[in-house]
Structure prediction request, 547 residues.
Amino acid sequence: MTKNAIISVKNLVKKFGNFTANDNLNFEVHEGEIFGFLGANGAGKTTAVRILSGLSAPTSGEVIVAGFNARKQPEQIKKNIGYMCQKFSLYEDLTVKENIMLYGGIYGMNKKLIRERTDSLLKRLNFEEYGDRLILDLPLGLKQKLAFSVAVLHQPKIVFLDEPTGGVDPVTRRQFWEMIYETAAGGITVFVTTHYMDEAEYCDRVSIMSEGKIVALDTPAELKKQYNVGSVEEVFIKIARP
Amino acid sequence: MKKVVESSGLCKRFGGTEALKSISFGVNENEIFGFIGPDGAGKTTLFRIITTLLLPDEGELKVLGLDCKTGFKELRRNIGYMPGRFSLYQDLSVEENLSFYATVFGTTVKENYDLISDIYSHIEPFKKRLAGKLSGGMKQKLALSCALIHKPALLVLDEPTTGVDAVSRSEFWEMLRKLRHHNITIIVSTPYMDEAMRCDRVALIQEGQILSVDRPETIRDGFSRKLFSIKAPEKHKLINALRSCPGISSVYPFGDSVHVTFKDDNFDNAIYEYLENSGISDVSISETRAGIEDRFLELMGTHLH
Prediction:
């Protein structure tokens, strides 16, 4: 397994007025890793993810994402990442192919490349007959899988997933994780934020934030061992609240 | 045992979509009854019928001994409902919301304070804050207080823990447990399998149909096969290899391991050699106890390969 850092965060501080949302964060995410980013409501996760995805500048500290500096090169970062959340992903009143075309265009892919990737994507998902259907008419499980495939259509270095499998049935959830494993095995780093501790169990390493700080960072197995409990959920309950 | 809810053959269609396909179940007095299933399974539609906000197309439903079609006026006085989406007044303060709900139901906060004190005390220090400015966990506690303030006989909670962090979720379930001392029956839905074990009885629901109704332990123990947990550092390779391994019946990723059953429950030591030949190292295999999610997967009856 490679240990190249695709995300490197040193002494990251983000303040809003007197409130310190991120209080000196230090961590690295390795290339091809599935990294879980956990924390209680209000712990500062969203603030950190916005900085990592080039949407917000750090107050101080150095943040390098996919080789680009979050303060100086946020536009470069945006081009090299993908994003998917459970609540919103695809345009319901566009067809499957139209959605793919739209996202491909936003990421600056040419028509030929979009067409090629569309064909291979639909084939891989066994979706060929759905190409001209509206997203509205697809079952939730299919929608989620498609949304993930679209988020990595431009083959980003990192894909950010927010509660990727919330609300889906157990079979679809597992198919989804297999897609994530496949993506990570192909070298794309997967950064998962979630409240769902079951999702944390699938990650290679997880960090837990509390009150703007990272209070734990390790593999799920190591964390469970360290706190002498049977699940990441129990680790979380022990340390996620001050 | 007295039934608080009795449903038989309940159907509901929206255009061409069958949201509920002949749903039958009963909820006993004073229990926490959970509906566990994914988005789109029909949980919210069912809850809207139970709370008299929708009428069923077919079937019978009695709630607190009353017919849902004819007894809705009386039922509404005796049901507390917490919808899935936060539905309190965002521009009223915490205490204004609470006293508004009390007044609508012809009671006062003071009269039923003992019922909510355990929950409301967590947010009382913020009682002047606007409801729209509360955190997720605090909104959830306020919504529960408002749903309880008229001392309903039946409390209906639609996905109360969705989007709430694990610590708040755990506290929330503790609060529901304590409500049992007040003779309140609770119906709750969740897409999270792990919350099933917190209920007295659960119904597993999928695509408008109930797959099973029982105590969660009983459902879990209904898993009929010998189950093995297999671990290796390269999970993706491991899953693919297991899937093409002869003698293996089902393969499901489960957190950091893969849950596997063998054909005819015959564990075959040849699997070690097979995996080694597939280039997978550091394999560990142990027999494991099925969880309720394993049973749900078995009941869904579909396999990934």
Observations:
- Chain B has a mean pLDDT of 93.
